[in-house]
Amino acid sequence: MGRPTMSIGSYDEDEHERRERKNADVDLSDDDDRTHYHGTVTYDSGDSAEALLDQFKKMNRD
Fold first, then answer.
1. Distance between CA 49 and CA 55 in Å, rounded?
2. Range of 49's domain?
């Protein structure tokens, strides 16, 4: 008994549309409301673009 397989050339427009519909279906459940937030946010509009890039690079290293 063989398994049905899809060859590389079998990916067609119907399959593309099916995957787009599947990925576009988002569950917006009412039970996903968050009531508690943890952490801090800081905002400083005085930093230069270079200082912000340095901070971003440092965060990626950590």
1. 10
2. 13-60
